Each structure stands twice: as C-alpha cells, then as structure tokens.
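dumping this here so i dont lose it
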C-alpha cells in the first residue's frame, strides 16, 4: 500500500490542519497520538472541482515507511488496552481485527476503489501505534463490535477523472441506494471471514505457512537424497535385485521342478529324510485295501441259508459270488475296489441328463447307495452313480439276484434305475467298444451279419456283426469261427405305468440282434407266470435293438418315498444257454415273472436263430434320468433320490461254474488289450474313430 501514499497525501496549512486537495474542507489533526484512539471521517462533503471526496493524509504516515512488525496474534487480548493494560471494549470495537499504524485507517484497492463507511454519522476508528490491536482473523473477535453492524460500500474501480486519469483517492458515496457496489459488511469471499479483516500483506506470517510455502534450505537437503535421472540408487539396486530373485524362484518352482519331477530325475525316494514321518490318526475306521479286502469271491457276511439256490429244474446251484456291501464307506474310483468300478463319464448312448461320478456311489448302513442329485457338473445339471464289474467279474449262465430299494416314488415318472448285465466285449458307456458287438448274440453266416441286415426298409441301423462266424482267417477276431457279440439281459429297468393308476413297473428283458421281422419273436415259447401283475411289453424294439420284454407291477413299499417304512425287494435272472434245453427266467422276489425258451428266438426270415447269451456277462448297477426313457414329471421329482442295493449274489450249477471275464471258448482279455483305445475313451462312438477297422468276411468274398 506504500506506493499509494502520495495519492492520499494533502497539504497542510499554517495551523497544522490537514486539508483536502481543494481547501474547501478542513479535517482537524489528532491532538494527542498517544492517548487518542480514533478520529472520524465525515463522508458527506464533496470536492466541487473534481467530483471526488479526498481524504487528507494523516501526518504521522511520514514517520513509518516500513511495514509494521506485527506481534504474535496468539498473545492478543482484544479487551485490553496496550497502554493501560485495562479492559477497553472501545478498542476492540474500533480495530475491527486489523493492526494499523498511528494513522487514519483507509482501505485502498489496488485497482482504484477504496472501502469506507457509507453512513454520514458513522466513523471509522483506528487505534494508534502504541495501542494497535493484534491481527485476529476469526469472526468472534469482531462479533460484538458496533462497526460490524454498519454497511460498507465499494467504489467502482472504473471511476476515472475526466475519463482519462485513474484515481487512487478515496471515493465515498453517501447514497447507498444508487451505488451498485454497496454490499453487506458480513459478505466475504474469504471463507466466511470479513473482507476488511483479511490480511493483504505478503510479509505477514501465519502458523501454517510452512505447509504450503517452499523452503529452499530444506528442499535442497531433500534434493541431495534424490537419484539423478538415468541412474540407480541403493534403493533401486535393491528393488531390481529382489525382482530378479522373485523371477528366478518362480521359474525354479513352477517350471524346473515340475520338469525334473515328471522326467523322473527327482523322486520322493531320492529325498534324504532326516526325521521319521509323523502320522496323525484322524479316525479308527479301517479302510479297505486292494491287497486285503477279500480273499474269497463269496462275501463272508452272506448268510448260510443264502448260499444255495434251487433252479427251475430243481437242481441245487452253488453261490459263486456275493457282495453284501456291509463295509462302511467303500469307494469305487478306478482301482479302489477289486470287483466294482464307479465310472466318471457321460453316458451318451442313451442321452442321459446326468453325469456319472464315483462321488455318487458309496456304501452306508449296510447297503450300496447310488445317489442322483440336482448337482451341476460337467455342463450337466444332474449327477448320479453307476457301478460296473466290466473286465473284473463276469459269469457265464447261472442265477443272479440283486436286492434293491428303488429310488423316488412309483407314482412319479422320470427316474431310470437299472440292474442289468452286458457281454464283456462291450464296456458300458464306451460307444466305440460296443460298436458292431452290441446287442449281437449270433453264430450264423448270413444276412444277419451284414449292415442293416441287408434290408432296405429301415429294419436295422446296425453296422453289422463285427466279430461274426465267417471272419476271414488271420484277421482281427478273439476266436475265429465263432460268432461273438455283447447281448444285454436286464433284471430291472424301472419306470411308471402310463395309465391312470400311476404305479411302479419293472421292465425285464433280453436285448439282441439280428432282428426278427417287425421285432416280433415267437411268443408261443414265452411263458408269463402271473398275468394279473405281468404283461408283455408293448415295446419290442427299434432300428438298433430288438427286445423280448415284459412289464410287472411293483409294490409301493419297495420305493423310497411311497411309505414311511420302505423295504428291499429282490430281482433275479436265471438262465442256461444250451440251445436245446436252455431257457431264461426272470424273477421279482421268489416269484418268476416270465420264461423265455430258445425256440422263441429261432430262425425267422433271412436270419438264423439267436442265442441265449453264451458270452461272459458283466454286471451293471446304475440310476439315471433321460428323456429317451420315459416322460419326466419334473415338478413332482424329489431330490436327492437314492437307489440302495442290499446285495448282489451269483449262483451256478455245480458242474458248470465260470466267474471269469476270459473263459475258455469265449475269450476277451487279449482282444481288449489289443484295442485299448476303444475301451478306455468314452468320447469315441465308433470303431473307426478309435482307429480300427472291421475284419473282412467270407460272406462278402473280400478275404485276401
């Protein structure tokens, strides 16, 4: 503000009175600077010549051309006079929170406008140099002053003398209504503090200046710690080294170590152990091991009275295999069990809606449990369990009995429980292995072995019998000169009757190829034992299979959800495969349902007789769900549904026992080993996809 001092100064007369520039008005000087605390400026007088009111400069301005050194604001007491050390409210009222020299207080805008009191009767009071108050920026310090209640005006900085000269003198206008720059004294752009109290001097020090003002000395000290661009300091070198160690460690752990382990360079046996292994016992349950589960094919838990079966002819057949499933917590992953395997695959052949998983098959409470869950896995929404004895346990003719508690309700269609057998040359669920062998049971060399049975009317869609009787010598065949296949014989396929009764039904059948005309066997040699509960199945086959089948009504007590006290029921199949004296008889409980004699499958049209199976038959237990089987009543199904198996027992004649999958005259082992790709990949659906070809036949004259 010092550079505006000349504009505010006027001339003094001989009486020591300060005058305005024109001499028209006199302003009395203060008589005693040490005791006087204020003087008034009357703002109603105007200089006639210039049109601006000019305030006479105070004479004491000449004695202090340097900025005032302000005391510490924190020591300021607004109610104590600096000269008398007594409370002086008038000083607080007059200072308005701003420190001043011993002079008239005039606030001058650098752009030409100066604020002053607008009212004629008001005064702007300023303490003298010795009694000047400390600067106080807080509103409470001026909240009780009379001056704060007055209005201030701001003169237009665009006011010029004669339109060409910019005036730095004080402009006072008593007519606030006509002055557009008159504002309320409480208005402030400085965060709520009065505008007149805001410090305008750069040299004024505040307590927080060190936060936002640069300090050259301290900055230089910090700069010495900085690393010049393009160079690495100690910290940078350490960071790069640590990053390098991290990369090397990751390469060793995730690349080098797996490669060495996979290649066999390192192994657990080569690791030197300095301390013995510690084994924590989590349970006292003794889990079975392959080396010590069973040493006998007959389960030791099988009751003595169940070790003999009386055949249709009255002969006593001996128990050759049994599994009572009494061992708690058995698992059936590949290699876990010596008789059964729980597959982990999708059964594509029947378009099932579930994924078969070993997780869904276990033993509990003295029974095998196959549990069907609404559980999303492998992009399917259901999971269930299957057990199969393929290539582990097979039997050739005899009597097989399975005791089961059926899943769900006999009144709700949708589930597909199955207890069945299949020739060992086809592995259940492996489409390539069954291609050309299922469901053939044929030992002739005629049109029955050809693709589609050489019939143009769509009777058969089968590719022909791959392992037929007239295969060319020296070609791919397990035992040349014998027609081989993989027929299917079902103890039970559960469904629900389609009539209004909605009762559970057991479908029992033999499925075979080649086919009779219209899939219609000679029913004169099919005996139904109780027609009140058993009837011929109206479905007799299709382009891929022929079925001789019956349907038997089941008791609701044999279902999981139809009674509070469900009970097990046995389902059985007894058969002998002699072409003259043989038969196949199905049972529900101890009661036979129907009997099939070989003559029912005799020669018909351009095909010869089909055989009651002579193949080693593996056992399959499963619970599925499929739209290809039956209508599914989704709202009525309950989840989970579990099929429970109490036991599996196999009986055979005393003089004709075979529980191997590789019997003499009908071998399978070598053939399976020579074609493992077809028997180990469930995603392959044809023999050609597995990389093999059908052997040539003499019937078609294509032998070498």
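and the seq i came up w/
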């Amino acid at each position: 503000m010092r550079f505006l001092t000349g504009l505010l100064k006027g001339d003094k007369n001989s009486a020591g009175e300060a005058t305005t520039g024109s001499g028209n008005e006199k302003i009395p000087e203060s008589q005693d600077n040490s005791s006087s605390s204020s003087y008034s400026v009357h703002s109603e007088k105007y200089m006639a010549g210039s049109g601006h009111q000019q305030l006479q400069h105070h004479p004491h301005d000449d004695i202090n051309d340097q900025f005032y050194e302000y005391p510490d604001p924190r020591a300021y007491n607004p109610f104590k006079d600096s000269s008398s050390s007594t409370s002086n409210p008038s000083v607080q009222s007059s200072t308005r929170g701003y420190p001043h020299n011993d002079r008239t207080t005039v606030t001058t805008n650098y752009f030409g406008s100066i604020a002053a009191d607008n009212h004629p009767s008001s005064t702007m009071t300023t303490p003298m140099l010795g009694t000047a108050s400390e600067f106080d920026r807080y509103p409470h310090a001026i909240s009780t002053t009379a001056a704060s209640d007055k209005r201030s005006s701001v003169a237009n900085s665009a006011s010029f003398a004669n339109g060409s000269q910019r005036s730095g003198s004080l402009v006072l206008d008593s007519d606030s209504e006509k002055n557009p720059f008159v504002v309320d004294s409480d208005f402030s752009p400085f965060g709520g503090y009065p505008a007149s109290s805001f410090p305008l001097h750069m040299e004024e020090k505040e307590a927080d200046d060190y936060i936002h003002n640069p300090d050259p000395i301290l900055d230089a000290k910090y700069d010495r710690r900085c690393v010049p661009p393009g160079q690495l300091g100690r910290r940078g070198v350490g960071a790069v080294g640590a990053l390098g160690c991290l990369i090397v460690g990751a390469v060793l752990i995730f690349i080098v170590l797996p490669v060495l382990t996979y290649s066999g360079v390192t192994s657990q046996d080569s690791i030197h152990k300095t301390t013995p292994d510690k084994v924590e016992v989590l349970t006292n349950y003794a889990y079975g091991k392959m080396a010590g589960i069973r040493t006998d094919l007959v389960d030791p838990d099988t009751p003595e009275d169940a070790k003999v079966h009386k055949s249709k002819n009255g002969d006593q057949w001996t128990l050759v295999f049994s599994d009572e499933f009494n061992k708690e917590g058995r698992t059936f992953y590949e290699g876990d069990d010596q008789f059964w395997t729980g597959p982990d695959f999708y059964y594509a052949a029947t378009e099932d809606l579930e994924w078969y998983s070993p997780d869904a098959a276990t033993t509990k409470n003295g029974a095998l449990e196959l549990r069907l869950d609404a559980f999303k896995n492998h992009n399917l929404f259901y999971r269930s369990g299957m057990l199969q004895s393929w290539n582990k346990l097979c039997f050739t003719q005899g009597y097989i009995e399975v005791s089961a508690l059926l899943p769900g309700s006999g009144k709700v269609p949708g589930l597909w429980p199955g207890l069945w057998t299949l020739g060992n040359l086809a592995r259940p669920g492996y489409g390539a292995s069954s291609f050309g062998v299922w469901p053939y049971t044929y030992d002739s060399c005629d049109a029955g072995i050809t693709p589609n049975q050489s019939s143009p009317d769509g009777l058969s869609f089968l590719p022909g019998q791959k392992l037929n009787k007239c295969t060319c010598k020296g070609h791919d065949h397990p035992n040349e000169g014998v027609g081989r296949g993989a027929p299917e014989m079902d103890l039970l396929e559960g469904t629900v009757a389609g009539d209004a009764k909605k009762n559970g039904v057991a479908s029992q059948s033999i499925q075979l190829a080649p086919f009779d005309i219209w899939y219609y066997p000679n029913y004169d040699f099919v005996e139904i034992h109780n027609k009140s509960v058993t009837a011929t199945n109206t479905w007799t086959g299709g382009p891929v299979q022929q079925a001789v089948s019956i349907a038997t009504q089941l008791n609701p007590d044999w279902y999981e959800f139809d009674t509070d006290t469900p009970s097990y029921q046995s389902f059985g199949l007894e058969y002998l495969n002699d072409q003259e004296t043989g038969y196949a008889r199905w049972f529900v409980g101890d009661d036979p349902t129907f009997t099939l004699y070989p003559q029912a499958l005799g020669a018909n049209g351009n095909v010869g007789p089909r055989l009651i199976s002579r193949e080693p038959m593996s056992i399959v237990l499963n619970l599925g769900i499929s739209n290809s089987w039956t209508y599914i009543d989704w709202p009525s199904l309950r989840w989970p549904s579990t099929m429970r198996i109490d036991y599996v027992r196999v009986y055979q004649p005393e003089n004709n026992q075979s529980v191997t999958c590789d019997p003499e005259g009908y071998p399978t082992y070598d053939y399976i080993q020579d074609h493992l790709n077809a028997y180990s990949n469930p995603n392959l659906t044809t023999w050609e996809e597995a990389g093999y070809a059908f052997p040539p036949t003499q019937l078609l004259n294509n032998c070498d």
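Confidence is low (pLDDT under 50) at residues 1-70, 72-174.
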